[in-house]
Every structure is written in C-alpha cells, then in structure tokens.
Amino acid sequence: MAPTDLTPIQVPYPKALDLELKLIADGCHIDIKPGAADDWVSGTYQDPSGQRSPRITQDGGALTIDHARTTTNLAGELIAGTPRFDLRLGTAKPFALTIRAAAIETDADLGGLPITRLVINQRAGESRISFGQANPQPAELLQISAQGATIETRKLANANAAAISLDGDATRYLVDFGGELHRNTRAAVSARASSVLITVPGSIAASISSTSMLGDLDVGNGFRQQGGVFWTRTAASADDPLLTIEASVEVGQLKLRVQ
Prior knowledge:
This protein has two domains: 1-92, no CATH class; 94-259. The protein is 3% helix and 59% strand. The protein has one helix at 74-80, and strands spanning 6-12, 20-26, 29-34, 39-46, 52-59, 62-69, 84-89, 95-109, 115-130, 141-147, 150-154, 163-169, 172-176, 185-192, 195-200, 205-211, 216-219, 223-226, 229-232, 242-250, 253-258. Strand 18 and strand 19 form a beta hairpin. It starts with 5 loop residues before the first strand and ends with a strand.
C-alpha cells in the first residue's frame, strides 16, 4: 500500500464541555489507542481500493466519523484489501464513545481514556476491547450489543463503570473482569444461541447469579455457592467494592471461571 492511500484525520477539542464521539463503520479494520492530549482524535484512514473516504461531521461537542463510498465496485474493493481506521483518542477531556459497526475487525485499547459512557453495537465480525489501565473518569455505563459476532473484552474492572451490559444473539463472548475494581459495579450478561465465558480474578469481590434456559452451565473451581449464587473468596470482606453479575444464556453455554 502506497503512502498516498492514507488520509490523515485530526480533530482538535471543541470548546463544548459535553463531548461525544461516534464511529460508524462497516467492512473494515479499526484500531483504537490512547493518543496525545492535544487532539481529541488523530490518526489515519486507508482504503486500498480508493473507493471510500472518511467523513467527519461535527456539531458542537458531537463528533461523528464514518466512511462513505465514492464509487461502487464491490469486486474491486474485495481484491484491493480491507479499509482501515487507525485512530488515537485524546486524554485531556472526558467524552462519551459510541461505535456502530458491521462486519468489522476491531482492536481497541481504551485504557486510560476518560470515557463517561461506552456504547458498542456490532453485527458480525470480531472485536477485541481492553482496558489496560484504569479509566480516570467514572463512567455511567458500558454497553455492548452484538449479533453474529465474536467479542473479547479484557480487564473490564478498569473501565470504572457503574453499570455494564452485554447482550448478544448468536455471539461468542469472552468476558474478563480483570483489573482493579474502584467502585460497586453491576453487570448484566444476556445472550441467546451463544457461547459466553466469564472470568473474574480471585482478588475481586464478586457474586454471580445465573440462569441458563435450555443451556449448559459450567462452573470452575474457586467459587463458593450460597443460595444459588456463586461468590469469589474475596467477597467475604465487606470492605471491598462488590462486582455483581447477573448472567443469562438461552440455548447456549455459559462458563464461569476464577482467574
């Protein structure tokens, strides 16, 4: 791919205080990492076929980034290769992040980003989302909804979210609640015709209640069961923040593991 295939993306912070970034994409690869504090969004877009270009619209504190076809030659697009967003998100101001995507492959390291709310809606494709560092901004909600996709989340405790909601149809979820829990967090995992693996560090105080209608429940070692609820050993200490997980899988498999 020649350097001319790259389209630079650079969006400074607006003066507005309430910020929201929306990323809308299909049939592409998305790479997201923390960036410098100077710009809200920086990076590049690359389409080897030359048939798409990034589109940036902004209204006050609301920023939308998507990509539009300038020509329609699907065969040529398939031959040329997959379009790609490489984005670096700023850390200077809190913002909400929404990703609406279809048939994508995503690698998103959101650790250290001051995210107030994260909403992801994905149809097909595969996404790997991690919080390698703690979110410095208390988040109100982390919500992922998927259909026919594979979603892998890592170190969700570092998201610093009050509520976490994961929903899926014909989806493969790998849900890791690793990291450090800074506040009480309620998580709901609901899936149908899906496979769900939930892992919780033994160092985190957590309780998991489960319903698996016409599904298979597989509980590993490291939990103690009381009243139909599975507890980590650390949950015996009332001084620790508590992670409360409600998991439901209809026609599928649910696995619970302690790391």
